[in-house]
């Protein structure tokens, strides 16, 4: 019997009824049809941050937060301050985070949990709290599998999901890199599925109360944290802050000033991995959401757009793409270049598929590390400086209606090992938005790959005649390291 199976039972906690709040009238137009959900794309990092802060500021009954990463950076501190302010006025706050990257944050999180209206749980906790790396030696099969879901739910009425974690890079307040990412804000029937999914994870045995894992805090630590967060917000998030000025100029804030958000009303469904996925054999697909999501997207007849920071299709994926190509489907794939990726070992798993993809007629693009675009949208000065870009959005568009937006990378780890979630939306408007970006804007930011006369890879930007015969903006050592990693038999865990 595992430690989690032997844990004492605790009272279950569930989402508060949505009818107890009236948040929808604050920001959103009236729902035209009970079967339709309303969707708003959060393309820009400033919009994504402004949405979370604005919702936290007006929450009336509950805020449920679920993320893989919750960085102890400026944007994370500001969000924590607003969650604490909500709790102070009586809002129930539940914070559920994967434990992988919380070593630096667990003291602050434990202090937050001292508040009567805040609960914090860590999912799939490492069993060695001080020397955390020992967990990978003693219990690798469990701790190597993580909760990768992203969810922000307010008053059981408004739901945000997509690719973004909590951290500067995701919200154009970057620290070390600027992520090109995508979230979607939702209201309507789809939110009920989101609250059910959150409750399923929150009440799962793998979700451990932080006060059981970190016991070195008392009420005085909460008082100290309150003071630090209040001081930080007054200093760094005041009207004089350049970041705050950019947030106030964001498209979402400007839309709210003009009235209510113009939502796209469409049919949508949220697909979520069962949390037991982390405890079952990876070949047991009964806990996996990916097969159901792929069936819901359907088979493209004309066009398939695939955007994923990590793309390791393996043979089943290649067979699917090959079949689409043979049926005349135009396939466009965007992923990270070697210079832009933040996980070179996954790039090593992807690199070997490029020639075959190109040979079957796939339009293959790789995001550049550096590119010039409108300062407000991508290349944005941060709290601490500016730096290069990396693709982090996970989205697909089929033909003229279907769109997927979520946390799922197209690699074996997301499909088989980690837990994920994502929305399938039947929306010509969202589909058209993504297609136009791919056709008109993406070429400015990415290298187009092709095969030369000898069948070797080459890279070219649309703004230059220069052709590269090796990975652009990389050193020989980087290219050698990736080649060396590609020899390792680890593709199934990438």
List descriptors.
494 residues; 18-stranded mixed sheet; 20% strand; disordered N terminus; single chain; alpha+beta; two-stranded parallel sheet
Average of pLDDT: 91
Which stretches are poorly predicted, pLDDT < 50 over at least 5 residues? 1-7, 373-387
Broad structural category: alpha+beta
* End-to-end gap: 29 Å
Number of helices: 18
Strand content: 15-25%
Instruction: Round the Cα radius of gyration to an integer and report it.
Output: 22 Å
Shape: globular
Query: Portion of residues in helices?
Result: 25-40%
Number of strands: 20
Major sheet, described briefly?
Answer: 18 strands, mixed
Question: How would you characterize the overall build of this protein?
Answer:
By secondary structure, the protein is an alpha+beta fold. The chain has 18 helices and 20 strands. The protein has an 18-stranded mixed sheet, with helices on both faces. It has a two-stranded parallel ribbon with strand order 7-14. Strand 18 and strand 19 form a beta hairpin. Mean pLDDT is 91; it is low at 1-7 and 373-387.
Task: Detail the topology: elements first, then pairings.
Layout: H1 24-27, E1 37-42, H2 45-58, E2 62-67, H3 74-88, E3 92-98, H4 106-112, E4 118-123, H5 135-138, H6 140-143, E5 151-154, E6 158-162, E7 178-180, E8 183-187, H7 190-202, E9 207-209, H8 210-213, H9 219-236, H10 242-248, H11 251-258, E10 264-272, H12 290-297, E11 303-307, H13 314-326, E12 330-336, H14 344-351, H15 354-359, E13 363-367, E14 389-391, E15 395-398, E16 402-406, H16 412-417, E17 421-426, H17 428-445, E18 446-451, E19 457-460, E20 467-468, H18 476-486
Parallel strand pairs: 2-3, 3-4, 7-14, 11-12, 12-13
Antiparallel strand pairs: 1-8, 1-10, 2-5, 4-9, 5-6, 6-8, 10-17, 11-15, 13-18, 15-16, 16-17, 18-19, 19-20
């Amino acid at each position: 019997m595992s430690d989690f199976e032997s844990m004492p039972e605790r009272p279950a906690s569930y989402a508060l009824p949505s009818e107890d709040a009236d948040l929808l009238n604050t920001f959103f137009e009236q729902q035209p049809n009970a079967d339709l959900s309303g969707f708003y794309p959060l393309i820009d990092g400033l919009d994504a941050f402004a949405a979370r802060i604005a919702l936290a500021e007006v929450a009336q009954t509950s805020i449920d937060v679920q993320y893989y990463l919750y960085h102890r950076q400026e944007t994370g501190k500001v969000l924590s301050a607003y969650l604490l302010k909500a709790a102070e006025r009586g809002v129930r706050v539940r914070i559920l985070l994967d434990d992988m990257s919380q070593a630096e944050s667990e003291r602050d999180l434990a202090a937050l949990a001292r508040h009567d209206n805040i609960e914090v749980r860590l999912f799939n906790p490492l069993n060695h709290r001080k020397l955390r790396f020992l967990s990978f030696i003693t219990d690798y099969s469990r701790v190597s599998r993580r909760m990768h879901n992203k969810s922000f739910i307010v008053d059981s009425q408004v739901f945000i999901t997509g690719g973004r974690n909590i951290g500067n890079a995701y919200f154009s307040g970057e620290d070390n890199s600027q992520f090109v990412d995508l979230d979607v804000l939702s209201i309507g029937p789809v939110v009920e599925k989101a609250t059910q999914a959150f409750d399923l994870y929150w009440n799962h045995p793998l979700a451990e109360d932080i006060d059981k894992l970190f016991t070195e805090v008392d009420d005085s630590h909460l008082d100290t944290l309150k003071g630090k967060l209040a001081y930080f917000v007054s200093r760094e998030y005041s009207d004089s802050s350049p970041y705050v000025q950019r947030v106030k100029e964001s498209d979402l804030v400007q839309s709210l000033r003009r009235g209510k958000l113009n939502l796209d009303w469409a049919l949508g469904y949220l697909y979520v991995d069962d949390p037991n996925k982390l405890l079952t054999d990876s070949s047991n697909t009964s806990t996996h959401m990916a097969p159901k999501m792929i069936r819901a997207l359907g088979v493209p007849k004309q066009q398939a757009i695939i955007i994923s920071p990590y793309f390791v299709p393996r043979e089943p994926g290649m067979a699917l793409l090959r079949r689409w190509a043979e049926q005349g489907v135009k396939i466009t794939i965007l992923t990270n270049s070697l210079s832009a990726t933040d996980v070179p070992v996954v790039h090593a798993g992807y690199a070997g598929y490029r020639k075959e993809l190109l040979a079957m007629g796939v339009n293959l693009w790789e995001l550049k590390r550096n590119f010039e675009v409108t300062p407000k949208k991508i290349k944005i000065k941060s709290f601490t400086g500016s730096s290069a870009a990396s693709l982090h959005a996970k989205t697909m568009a089929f033909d003229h209606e279907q769109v997927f937006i979520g946390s799922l990378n197209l690699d074996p780890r997301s499909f088989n090992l980690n837990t994920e979630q994502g929305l399938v939306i039947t929306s010509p408007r969202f589909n058209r938005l993504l297609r136009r970006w791919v056709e008109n804007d993406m070429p400015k930011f990415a290298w187009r790959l092709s095969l030369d006369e000898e069948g070797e890879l080459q890279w070219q930007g649309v703004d230059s005649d220069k052709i590269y015969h090796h990975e652009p903006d990389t050193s020989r050592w980087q290219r050698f390291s990736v080649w060396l990693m590609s020899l390792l038999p680890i593709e199934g865990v990438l």
